[in-house]
Design a protein that fits this description.
six-stranded antiparallel sheet, 6 helices, single chain, Glutamine Phosphoribosylpyrophosphate, subunit 1, domain 1, alpha+beta, four-stranded antiparallel sheet
Length: 224
């Protein structure tokens, strides 16, 4: 895997994960988030259970630091892994194993963490952070897309990118946004295009779906 960002929006409480890589289908196993609890990104030599168990630990109320401590105790191959966690308070923690392909590392900021491996250098992560912070008033989904796009401009994965993803949870257990580009010559551009399509055609359907507080949802006239 290559570069990702985990983040929390302090205005809405939304959590999100976005990523891009040279391999196909980055969104299938990397992105994990739970509304109200936090998010996890698992990459390098992926262990999906770091994401699944990480969310379970976050739901138990563990901090990001404690989650990574517990995860490390479950995986004998942590030197091969890279894993980032953000908790309910927006605190972050990232693990980069010493056997991850260089350049590998992470950069933490206020309520976000960016991390990557097999990058052209640390300037990629700084570009992601700068783009994410450029306009804090934008919706989290747009900030994440801008962050991923900025990484590509500054080199990104040394082998180029083939897939990208952005995943955002709001208040419900299902995602508000789940956009995946599984294989494309310019995945960041395709992510932008799909965001516009989803905004017009998918988001209204999501917002009308049943919620825990309103199990009936909102009945739309064109579905009757």
């Amino acid at each position: 895997m290559t570069f990702s960002i985990v983040a929390r929006c302090p205005r809405t409480g939304q959590f999100g994960v976005a990523a891009a890589t040279a391999m196909p289908a980055v969104g299938k196993l990397l992105s994990h988030a739970a509304a109200g609890f936090g998010a996890v990104a698992t990459q390098a030599q992926v262990n999906p259970y770091l994401g699944l168990d990480g969310l379970a630990f976050l739901r138990e109320g563990d901090s990001a630091v404690r989650v990574l401590e517990r995860l490390a105790a479950t995986d004998p191959c942590m030197p091969l892994r890279q894993c980032a966690v953000i908790d309910a308070k927006g605190q972050t923690r990232c693990w980069t194993g010493d056997q991850c392909l260089p350049w590998a590392g992470s950069l933490a900021g206020e309520q976000f963490s960016v991390q990557g491996n097999r990058l052209t250098g640390p300037e990629v992560l700084q570009a992601v952070a700068n783009a994410f912070n450029r306009d804090p008033q934008l919706p989290l989904i747009e900030r994440l897309i801008e962050a991923i796009a900025a990484a590509d401009v500054h080199g990104g994965d040394r082998q180029g990118e083939a897939s990208a993803t952005v995943y955002v949870v709001d208040k419900e257990e299902y995602p508000l946004w789940d956009i995946r580009v599984d294989h494309h010559p310019t995945p960041e551009q395709e992510l932008r295009r799909l965001h516009k399509v989803f905004e017009q055609q998918v988001l209204p359907e999501i917002l009308a779906m049943p919620t825990r507080e309103n199990p009936a949802g909102t009945v739309q006239e064109d579905t009757i």
